[in-house]
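Journal club prep — side note

Before the paper discussion, L.F. wants everyone to see what a predicted structure for a comparable chain looks like in token form. Sequence:
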Amino acid sequence: MQHKPLFVALIGLALAASAQAQWKWKDAKGNVQYSDRPPPAGTPDKDILQRPPSAAPRIVTIVPAGQPASAASAPAPQPAASAPTKAEQDAAARKKQDQERDAAKQKEEERRVAELKRENCSRAQANLRDLQSGIRITRTNEQGERVFMDDAQRAAEVERARNVITSECK
């Protein structure tokens, strides 16, 4: 039974290690407390004066594959100040929806304007073709009578049609 002394020695070491597991902290009244158990929950870290070696806070740094180990010594990124509240999230969601709705309205308006420009361009080109064809063109005057266009009126209408084509047919 040579194993018995070794077994007793191991138990003694284990008990000695647990005897050294002492906590030291200041309580809410400022009194120093000693115990083999951790301080009560809610005790601030600054008031914990001593921890057992096994309870020391451990900092574990994970280095992603492919990065040098020196990246582990870089300071850890600070956590965000605080997560947004439900009201802030709702407000942000409403703002995003409003922006999307405004963008959709603007896109629809741009599409409508582009369609009107195409129609104006087509009409102006057809009108210019008719004016340059030499056929007689009539207009209705204020009394409702049909009046033929003279050369000066035709020239003015050709100029107006060209201006519309220049502005609308881009």
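L.F.'s comment for the group: The chain is about 50% helix and 10% strand. Keep this in mind when we get to the figures.
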